Every structure is written in structure tokens, then in C-alpha cells.
């Protein structure tokens, strides 16, 4: 059952294995981010994991290193530090929480296909920096996910600072 749950969650993860480039390069010149956290599974929320707390923790951490936090989307880039914590409590193993954590930078970008003139550029919303983690833990340790999110955000901060100092 646990293996099946891990497979299901892994299928939902963004794949970055195709990315042969150094993804931190896309953070060069980034002016700031709006932090967006997806809602948490209500069953896991009852165990103590809260999307608002994750957002507050991430905003504090990012702000402390000098990265500007936008309260709303700022055109033209509309950049978001997007955090998704997907959780699953297997029906037959109520003491286990399977999780995936996805930290991504979403921006408005332009497709570079079939370009003849500038007017042919197509603007789309895309994740251009992605970091994912999958795991499982005891249901009474669900608060450990806060630290795991922070470790993922630390990698974003490290990449951002490497490109913007």
C-alpha cells in the first residue's frame, strides 16, 4: 500500500530530469516573488500542518535574505514562489503520511517556437525553477514537513543569491 502511494505521488511530481541546464540561471535579475502555497489536505491539516504557517515561514525566510516579497503579482513577470505540499494518508496505514513537496518559481515566459517576428511570441505561464522531494513519515511527526519545506526554500535562496549578488 505504501509503495503504491509513493508511486501515485511520484507520478504527480514535475519531472526535471530533462533539464540539462543549470536552472539557477533563470533566477538572474529576479526582482522578487509572491509566495503562493496550495491548500493542505484537510486530513493532514487536522494533524497540525497549515498552509498559512508555511507561507508565513517562507516569506520570513526569503525576506530576511533581502529578496523582495510581493503582496500581489507584479507585471510583467508575475513571478511566484509556488509551494505545493501534497499529502496522502493511506487508508490501511493511518499512522503514515506520504508526502511530496514541490517548490517552484512560476513566471510569464515566451515560447521560442515558430518565431518569425516579435509579434509571433506566445506568452505562457511556466515553472522555470523546480525542486521536488518525496517521502513518508509518521502521522505524529507531520510538523517535520515545515522543516523539509524550509530546506527546499533554502536551495531556492542559495540559487537566487548565487545569481544576484
Topology, element by element:
Layout: H1 2-11, E1 34-37, H2 42-45, H3 51-64, E2 80-88, E3 96-111, E4 122-138, H4 144-163
Parallel strand pairs: 1-2
Antiparallel strand pairs: 2-3, 3-4
Alpha-beta content class: alpha+beta
What is the 3D shape? Answer: globular
Share of β-strand residues? 25-35%
Strand order of the largest sheet: 1-2-3-4
What is the helix tally? 4
Compute the separation of the termini in Å.
47 Å
Radius of gyration: 17 Å
User: How many β-strand runs?
Assistant: 4
Q: Main sheet, how many strands, which sense, barrel?
A: 4 strands, mixed
Order of helices and strands: HEHHEEEH
Indicate the mean pLDDT.
Answer: 85
Helix content: 25-40%
Low-pLDDT sequence parts: 15-20
How would you describe this protein?
A hairpin with a 7-residue loop joins β2 (80-88) and β3. The protein is 29% helix and 28% strand. Mean pLDDT is 85; it is low at 15-20. With 165 residues, it is α+β, with helices and mostly antiparallel strands. The protein contains four helices and four strands, in the order αβααβββα. It is globular and about 55 Å long. The longest helix is centred in the C-terminal third of the chain and has 20 residues, at 144-163. It has a four-stranded mixed β-sheet.
List keywords for this structure.
alpha+beta, 165 residues
Task: Write a brief structural summary.
By secondary structure, the protein is an alpha+beta fold.
Amino acid at each position: 500500500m505504501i509503495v503504491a502511494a509513493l508511486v501515485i505521488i511520484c507520478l504527480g511530481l514535475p519531472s526535471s530530469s530533462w533539464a540539462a541546464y543549470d536552472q539557477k540561471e533563470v533566477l538572474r535579475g529576479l526582482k522578487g516573488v509572491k509566495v503562493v502555497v496550495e491548500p493542505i489536505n484537510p486530513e493532514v491539516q487536522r494533524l497540525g500542518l497549515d498552509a498559512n504557517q508555511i507561507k508565513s515561514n517562507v516569506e520570513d525566510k526569503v525576506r530576511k535574505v533581502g529578496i523582495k516579497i510581493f503582496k500581489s503579482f507584479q507585471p510583467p513577470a508575475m513571478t511566484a514562489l509556488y509551494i505545493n505540499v501534497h499529502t496522502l494518508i493511506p487508508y490501511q496505514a493511518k499512522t503514515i503520511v506520504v508526502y511530496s513537496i514541490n517548490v517552484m518559481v512560476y513566471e510569464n515566459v515566451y515560447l521560442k517556437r515558430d518565431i518569425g517576428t516579435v509579434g509571433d511570441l506566445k506568452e505562457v505561464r511556466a515553472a522555470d525553477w523546480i525542486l521536488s522531494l518525496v517521502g513518508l513519515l509518521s502521522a505524529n511527526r507531520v510538523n517535520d514537513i515545515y522543516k523539509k519545506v524550509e530546506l527546499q526554500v533554502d536551495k531556492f535562496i542559495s540559487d537566487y543569491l548565487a545569481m544576484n549578488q
